[in-house]
Write the structure tokens for this entry.
Amino acid sequence: IGASAARISSLQREVRAATAAKPTVPDANRNAKLVQERINDGRLLDPGQDSALFHLNALRASDAAGAAVAAVALSASLLEHSRSSLTAGRLDDAERHVVAARQLGLNLQDVQEVETSIAAARIPAPPAPVQVTADQLKRTRYVAPDFPRQALAKDLRGEVRLKYTIDADG
């Protein structure tokens, strides 16, 4: 078509720059709306390509200031979901959400509290003591009682009741 190589190269650079440009404000508004919708729907982390976190990252690329408000809302929702999962005993789910909240870098004191609660929940509870009745015990050694001489002389008798705990080592 008669264009020089330099002109073609220049046009190619302009096309690449135009296609690599940041999204426009309508895209930022759309992503902000999607973040809020996903939060409302409870789709905080899943599905990966259509979650609140995914759209927040897209929003950050186009409008960092607008993303800050959405990040606060998402962080609060992640922590709330993590706490409810912890209460329900779903520790892996709770941990996944608190990790995402930590990555947002907000509410770090709340994040630390939830992480501490998850760590405490992962520690196994000590086994409950086992109660054994007297007929289940086996005497391994007999020691004759040592009665005081004065009690024997007066023919005094009595009864002793004991309550004791035997540990795992006997």
User: Anything to note?
Assistant: Residues 91 and 121 are 8 Å apart (CA to CA).
